[in-house]
Write a structure and sequence with these properties.
The chain is of the alpha/beta class. It is 37% helix and 20% strand. It is found in: Cytoplasm.
Length: 241
């Protein structure tokens, strides 16, 4: 999952970057409204964390511009994504401020100072709603994924995944059965300027198949990867006589 943080306070931005990366997000930081709009126009972010008082204008104006974006043509993806989940984070704690933010198109509103764990919980709830889920766990066949605890069970047994492996699995699960290109998966796992090996996605896919089953992730040659909406039935075991 890739998050864009729009915050001009360097200390807050740095703390958010650390917390989000520890939670498995790829993170990019912007300090101005114009820089944020440029980033949204070139990268497919999954969530936007938005301060209101920015050096070059109001965060609410950026939000309004995002929500006014035209709907994409059928079968096409548009940037910026007008339906992107948005969390406002601000020191403005008046009731009228919260109403303006939520009525202005924000999905949630948190006031500074805030606890990083609460912010992460709010992000998880926003992303569940955006994906049409109410259950905090993601269940797929014999797999049970807990995004909050960063755990995976396969047939009731814990499976150890690295940070990028877990992030890739979560991205594919939340998008299923949509086919995601290698470039889209790279953008979900890596922020601007992060080192990326040319075969990193293929390596992580290989690891996930080895740990979670070869049939979990499908390849569409020349297009990308996907997880089917319905899990394949586990192969039955047979005992010879």
């Amino acid at each position: 999952m890739r998050a864009l943080v729009v915050e001009d306070d360097a200390g807050i931005a740095s703390g958010l970057e650390v917390a989000l990366k520890q939670a498995g997000y790829a993170v990019d930081l912007c300090t101005t409204r114009d820089a944020a709009w440029h980033a949204l126009a070139v990268e497919p972010f999954d969530v936007l964390l938005l301060d209101l008082g920015l050096p070059d204008g109001e965060g609410l104006d950026l939000l309004a511009r995002l929500r006014r974006q035209p709907a994409p043509a059928p079968g096409r993806n548009a940037l910026p994504r007008r339906d992107m989940p948005v969390l406002i984070m601000t020191a403005r704690d008046g009731v009228s401020d919260r109403i303006s933010g939520l009525d202005g198109g924000a999905d949630d509103y948190i006031t500074k100072p805030f606890d990083a764990n609460e912010l992460l919980a709010r992000l998880r709830a926003m992303l569940r709603r955006a994906g049409g889920r109410s259950n905090p766990l993601i269940e797929h066949g014999e797999l049970v994924i807990d995004p909050a605890a960063h755990t995976v069970l396969r047939a009731g047994q814990p499976v150890s995944l690295g940070g990028k492996e877990f992030a890739l699995l979560l991205t594919l699960m939340q998008a299923r059965p949509q086919v995601l290109s290698k470039a889209r998966l790279e953008s979900a796992l890596y922020g601007f300027g992060e080192a990326l090996e040319s075969n990193a996605i293929e390596v992580y896919i290989h690891h996930l198949r080895r740990k979670l089953g070869e049939s979990l992730i499908k390849t569409v040659r020349g297009v990308g990867y996907f997880i089917p909406r319905e899990a394949a039935e586990p192969a039955a075991s047979h005992t010879g006589r």
